[in-house]
Amino acid sequence: MQPEAHHYLGIEMNQQVWKLLGQKDRDERDNRRMEHFALASLYHWEQSPKFAPINAQRGHWLLTRVYAVLARSNETLLHAEKCMSLTLELDLKDFDLAYAHEGLARAHASAGNTDKAKEQYRRAVEAGEAIAGDEDKTSFMGDLEGQPWFGMKVSLSR
After folding, report:
1. Is the four-CA dihedral 65, 46, 94, 114 of positive or negative sign?
2. What does the alpha-carbon distance between residue 69 and residue 134 come to, in Å, rounded to a whole number?
3. Residue ranges per domain, the chain?
4. What DSSP assignment string belongs to 111-134?
């Protein structure tokens, strides 16, 4: 496969995941496709000639979201921890940091670790408030309020 094809497929698989995440009436086949597309997106990004470590961080965050939506707490936590590890290693800030905390909060909520989930949620809100761009900040805060939170009450008010 040509290296440029990996770049294209990484982007295309990512877009397919987002389409499926936004689909209200997903069935089991759609859920499997969504998981496979997210895994394939990360794989193809890693093979792309334009790969940068931030692509891996964002790929693990996307897997965190997919597994949270699928209510698979072990996988959610695994990818959330990898996302945060890369975030810290790469010294990422702004919305990447906010999303890393959001992913960990959601992962802990999915695993029933309420105290850890609440702490990470608080950190996600703080990091979200520090996002420089208004559009990015609004988008993040909207995502943060969205489900699933596995029965944990979330609020952007402090």
Report:
1. positive
2. 27
3. 1-51, 73-158
4. HT-HHHHHHHHHHHHHHHHT-SSH
What is residue 85's predicted lDDT score, i.e. its pLDDT?
98
CA-to-CA separations, 42 to 3, 14, 31, 150, in angstroms, rounded: 14, 8, 17, 26
Quick check: 120 and 84 in contact, CB under 8 A?
A: no
Q: What DSSP string runs through 73-98?
A: HHHHHHHHHHHHHHHHHTT--HHHHH
Instruction: Please name which of 82, 89, 37 lies closest in space to residue 45, comparing C-alpha atoms.
Output: 37
Q: Which of 37, 42, 39 is nearest to 26 (CA)?
A: 37
Distance from the Cα of residue 119 to its chain's centroid: 18
Structure tokens, 72: 């698979």
Rounded Cα distance, 98 and 95, in Å: 5
In tens, the pLDDT along 82-140 reads: 999 999 999 999 999 999 999 999 999 999 999 999 999 999 999 999 999 999 999 99
Q: How far apart are CA 6 and CA 114, in angstroms?
A: 39
Closest by Cα among 66, 158, 149, 70 to 113: 149
Peptide bond into 53 cis (omega under 30): no
Query: In terms of pTM, does the model score above 0.90?
Result: yes
